[in-house]
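Researcher: Hi, I'm a grad student and pretty new to this. My advisor asked me to get structures for two proteins we've been looking at. I'm not sure of the right format, so I'll just paste the first sequence and hope you can take it from there.
Model: That works fine. Here's the first sequence with its structure tokens right after it:
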Amino acid sequence: MTVVKLFDSELKIMDIVWDKEPVSAKEISLIAAETIGWNKNTTYTIIKKLLDKNALRRTEPNFICTSLVQKAEVRKAETQSLIDKLYNGSKKAFFASFIENDLTEDELEMLKKLIEKR
């Protein structure tokens, strides 16, 4: 699977697909209407863009959608893009900014354990 650049609207549709796949475009549209407030045309336009980017695969009958990109890989790429954009590529600066915010003791302890595992 490859990683493609996804816009926020595309990520919203991909979240539905990752959660429900294989899932019909109709069901995606119904879920998007309920959770995001989008109409059918908006949802189908974004599905078309995802098909064009090879992030989704469409199979018939019933316009069934399955992902061609992994959620973990997209998250990794999006996180790196954020670090590059806001922290000049410095993971150290990103992490420092992250832990300086209001984290609970439990959250800090969990982060400490994650670092120790590495």
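Researcher: Oh nice, that was easy. Here's the second one.
Model: And its structure:
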Amino acid sequence: MLLWIFFIAVSFLLGLAVSSLLSIRFLAAERAFFSLVVGHAISIWLVFLLSCLNGALSVATVLQCVVLCAAASVVLFGVGGLKEENVVKGVKGKGVKGERSVLVFFAVVLLYLVAMNLHGVFRADEAGNLYAIHTVWADYPFHTSLATAFAYSENFSFPPSYPQFSGTKMHYPFLMDFYSAVLMKAGLSLRGAFLVPNILFQFCFFGLFYSLARRLTGSKRVGALSVFIFIFSGFPSGLQSSWGIHFLNPMYAVLMPQRTAMLGLGVSFAVYILLFHALFAEGEEREREEREGREEREGREEREGREEREGRGEGVFRLLSRLDRGEPCHTLGV
């Protein structure tokens, strides 16, 4: 069943429709990351509320959410509209060369996240045993119990109860595990229902992290460097045990085991980008116009230089051709 793909797609469209209402000018990749995070934050809460009303999480409930999100997207697109140049900014035309390195960087980050999750989350051996990295092994039994309880419970209420402690109301932020339950109902296996949101929201977080750093500094290199430092920060284990300063790698210690951090950090950085735009929109717009003007001048100078070089080359070729035929130089007109 491919219902999970439709759920992700309409969540993205809903976030894209919300972004069309905003005055901020996104780059194409930045808008995609923003739309995935914001759209899912809305759609997951919506399917949770529908489950509370229906008394259980079911395929029908997921379908209801898909239809409502699609309808809301159509309405919001009609209200806000979305200009093509805002969608494709930095993806086609003269922006391709400028953003090609950024797309390569994002591809490398995505490959790293896919490899990290495939290796570290419920990796099966030939005998069917499931393996995980240390932090995931310690935390995910709790997360899987929440997800399966949401997926298979026949009595759905708010606030939900801990499956480990009967009758105890839940105070843990459960939305990511509930989303895994939604994906299980929509056709994914238990492992797939954890891997897909892990990779999706980790990737969106790093994309928005890059975007905020780039907006703050105006530098693509600083944006990439900030993500690189985040991924590889932390002390070696020997240094931590010797000095007693436990600076763990955030990818290993936070993003992988603490699933709520994935969506929470993504939403946080989406808010930070909007806040930065609200506070510094005038300066940002002026800087953008200056940058685009500079790029346009450089492009025009490059075209003029190329045309001049081509003209000189053509003149020299004509000169050599006529000399070869024995024609006098004063008749060449060059």
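Researcher: Is there anything I should tell my advisor about the second?
Model: You could mention this: The longest strand covers residues 123-124.
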